[in-house]
Design goal:
By secondary structure, the protein is mainly alpha-helical.
Length: 195
């Protein structure tokens, strides 16, 4: 059966109009199985059983200066993340929200970012910092990786240069242990091959 384009669109519009013109069935009383909290999904439980309730987000929680400070501090829960990342990704952690409240409290007292970081260092030691301070022996942590990469590059360049040069030219062979008569015979044979 072949249908032209005009017939196809006519049938399509007729089907659409008939679907739209159907009356909406009247609302009836719901059966007990369709009521929320019952039926095959089971009973609904208290949402607080799913985990600790989260505190409402305040404007200071999204403050860029507070976030920058928290990104400089290690969360002490053992996750290895900074405070900001831990509190915004691990909703089971109770340590990072407490550290966040402490940062916010110090900022509300008018302390600068460096003073807040220094306060955490005084309380927990240098290990609380995400990066070691750039002084003393800690400078080795900043320069050693670059130095190792540089030395490895130089050694690799030297090795590649040696390998691409090829084998060294062979040294001349030592004079043969032959008598003068044998050398004369060898010279005559070589002249005969050259002609």
């Amino acid at each position: 059966m072949s249908v032209t384009r005009r017939q196809f669109f006519g049938l399509l519009s007729a089907a659409t109009l008939s679907a739209l013109s159907r009356p909406v069935p009247p609302l009836t009383a719901q059966t007990p199985e369709s009521l929320p909290g019952s039926g095959p999904s089971g009973r609904l439980w208290d949402p607080s059983r799913a985990g600790r309730p989260l505190e409402p987000v305040m404007a200071v929680d999204n403050n860029a200066a507070i976030q920058a400070i928290e990104k400089r501090l290690h969360c002490t829960c053992g996750c290895g993340l900074d405070v900001y990342t831990c509190r915004t990704t691990d909703f089971t952690c109770t340590t990072s929200p407490e550290m966040h409240r402490h940062v916010v409290m110090l900022a509300a007292q008018g302390k600068t970012a460096q003073q807040i970081v220094d306060a955490f260092v005084r309380e927990s030691g240098v290990a609380i910092l995400m990066a070691p301070p750039k002084r003393g022996f800690n400078l080795a942590a900043y320069f050693t990786p670059s130095l190792v990469i540089l030395v490895a590059g130089v050694l690799l360049a030297l090795a590649l240069r040696r390998w691409t040069r090829g084998a060294p030219a062979p040294s001349p062979a030592p004079p043969p242990d032959a008598s003068p008569a044998e050398l004369e015979r060898l010279r005559r044979e070589l002249e005969r091959f050259q002609d």
